[in-house]
From TrEMBL:
Gene3D superfamilies: Chondroitin AC/alginate lyase. One of its GO terms (molecular function) is lyase activity. The keyword Lyase applies. Residues 78-363 form the Alginate lyase domain. This is Alginate lyase family protein. Residues 75-114 are annotated as: Disordered. It holds the Pfam family Alginate_lyase. The keyword Signal applies. Keywords: Lyase, Signal.
Length: 420
C-alpha cells in the first residue's frame, strides 16, 4: 500500500470516530472479514476500540480518512486507456518499463533509443514514468485498500462505492479490465519484451487488494455479488498463469526479495481463491528457501545488503516475509518461530535493522536514499509476534509521512515516498 501519497491530518484537526457515522451511510458488517493477510478479528477489535474512544486509533483513523478523502476525487483507472500498445498487441495487457535500465549510447537518428540499455542498480530512469500503467497500478492498489478500510471503520458509503468502482474497472469490466497475466512488465527497450522481474510490481500490492475485496464482502454498498465473483475469477486465473508460466516459475525461483514476494503472492492468492493446501505448502517451503538460505546468522540478508539501497531492500524483503507469516497464520504455520540450523530467523533479521531504524547507530551498508521509517511496519509485526527487542524499539520509531496506521491495518505495508 502506498500510504504516503497524501499528507497526514494537520495537528488540531477534527478527528472522526467510528461511532460518528454520517446519516445516510451504511455501517460495515460486524463479522470479521475473511482476509488473507490481515487478521479479520483484529479489525473487529480495532473497530470496537474506536467505538470506545481509543485515542491512538482515533489518531490513526484521522490519517486514514484524510487519505481516503484524497482518493475520492481520483480514478478509476484502466490499462486500456494508455496510448502505448504493448508488444503483445493487446492494450489490456499491463505494460511497464524496467526502471533501473538506461541507454548506453547517445540518442541519434540512427540509434534513437540509445541502444543497448544497461542496468544501473537503484538509479531510476524517468523514461519508465511515461507509461501510465505502472503509476496507475500503484494508485489502484493504494486507493482501493485505503478506501475499503475507511469504509469499514466509518461506514461512509462513498468510500465503499469508489473502492468498488476502482476494483471493478481494473479487474472485472470487460472493456476496461486487465488481462490476468504479466507478459510485458518491466520490458527493456531494444531488449526484452517483458521480464520475470516485472512480476514484483504485482507481488507487492495485489495481496492488499485481496484483503480490500474481503472487507467489501462484509456488506459494502456498491460491491455486488458479480463484482465479488469477477474479482475472484481474475485472481484465480492470475494464480494459474503465475504457477504455470515461465516468468512465474523464474520469479518464484529467485533467491532475493523477488522470490520472497513471489511466495507471498502465491500463498495469499491461493488462500483467497480456495486453495489452502497450496498456500500452506508455499509457506512451509519458505522456511528453508527464504529464512535458512536468505538470512545470515547475524541477521543480515546477504542478497539485500549488496544492493545500492541496502536498507530499503533489507526492510523490503522482511515486509514480504512478515506478510507471508500473516498468510501462514491462517493455514497453521508460524514462520516467526522458525529457526535455521545456524540460528537464522525473521526475528534476528528485524533486530539487525533496529539500530538504524531507531537512530541509535548508522546503517553500516550502502544506502543511496535512507528513510529511517522504512522498516517501521516490519518492526511492528515482529513486536506483535513476540520480539522483545522490536517491542522495546517501538517508542523510538519516527512516524512515516501519512501517519502510523498500524493499529487499524496490522499487516506490514510498503512505507515509501515513491511509487513502486
Amino acid at each position: 500500500m502506498l500510504s504516503l501519497l497524501v499528507p497526514a491530518v494537520p495537528s488540531g484537526a477534527a478527528v472522526p470516530t467510528a461511532a460518528a457515522v454520517p446519516a445516510g451511510t451504511v455501517v460495515a458488517g460486524q463479522h470479521a472479514p475473511r482476509t488473507v493477510v490481515l487478521d479479520g478479528k483484529r479489525l473487529v477489535h480495532a473497530k470496537q476500540r474506536l467505538n470506545q474512544g481509543d485515542p491512538v486509533r482515533r489518531r490513526a483513523l484521522a490519517d486514514l480518512v484524510e487519505q481516503a478523502d484524497n482518493w475520492l476525487g481520483q480514478g478509476p483507472w484502466s490499462v486500456a486507456d494508455k496510448t502505448q500498445t504493448p508488444p503483445s498487441g493487446d492494450k489490456h495487457d499491463y505494460l511497464s518499463q524496467a526502471p533501473y535500465w538506461w541507454p548506453s549510447q547517445p540518442k541519434t537518428p540512427d540509434n534513437p533509443l540509445g541502444c543497448p540499455y544497461v542496468s544501473k542498480d537503484g538509479q531510476r530512469n524517468p523514461e519508465a514514468d511515461q507509461i501510465p500503467d505502472h503509476s496507475e497500478r500503484a494508485y489502484v492498489f493504494a486507493s482501493a485498500y485505503t478506501l475499503s478500510l475507511a469504509w469499514y471503520y466509518t461506514g461512509k458509503a462513498a468510500y465503499a462505492r469508489h473502492a468498488s468502482d476502482i476494483l471493478r474497472t481494473w479487474f472485472v469490466t470487460p472493456e476496461t479490465r486487465m488481462n490476468p497475466r504479466l507478459i510485458n512488465a518491466q520490458f527493456v527497450p531494444c531488449g526484452d519484451d517483458g521480464r520475470a522481474a516485472g512480476l514484483i510490481e504485482f507481488s507487492l500490492g495485489f495481496t492488499s487488494l485481496l484483503d480490500a475485496a474481503a472487507i467489501l464482502d462484509t456488506g459494502a454498498p456498491g460491491w455486488t455479488r458479480a463484482d465479488h465473483g469477477g474479482f475472484r475469477s481474475w485472481s484465480a486465473q492470475f494464480l494459474d498463469w503465475w504457477t504455470t508460466s515461465e516468468f512465474g516459475k523464474e520469479e518464484s525461483a529467485a533467491v532475493n526479495n523477488h522470490g520472497t514476494f513471489a511466495d507471498m503472492q502465491v500463498a495469499a492468492i491461493a488462500l483467497s481463491v480456495g486453495r489452502p493446501q497450496l498456500a500452506r505448502e508455499t509457506v512451509l517451503q519458505a522456511r528453508t528457501t527464504r529464512i535458512d538460505q536468505g538470512i545470515a546468522p547475524d541477521g543480515s540478508q546477504p542478497e539485500e545488503i549488496r544492493r545500492t539501497r541496502s536498507y530499503h531492500y533489507s526492510a523490503f524483503n522482511l515486509l514480504a516475509l512478515a506478510r507471508l507469516a500473516d498468510v501462514g497464520r491462517h493455514v497453521g504455520v508460524n514462520l516467526w518461530k522458525h529457526q535455521g540450523p545456524d540460528g537464522q530467523s525473521v526475528f534476528k533479521a528485524v533486530d539487525f535493522l533496529l539500530p538504524a531504524a531507531t537512530g541509535t547507530a548508522p546503517w553500516p551498508h550502502p544506502e543511496s536514499k535512507f528513510e529511517i521509517w522504512k522498516a517501521n511496519d516490519v518492526i511492528h509485526a515482529a513486536a506483535d509476534a513476540g520480539d522483545r527487542n522490536a517491542r522495546a524499539a517501538l517508542p523510538q520509531l519516527t512516524p512515516p509521512p501519512g501517519g502510523d496506521l498500524w493499529t487499524l491495518r496490522p499487516a506490514a505495508e510498503l512505507l515509501s515516498s515513491e511509487l513502486f
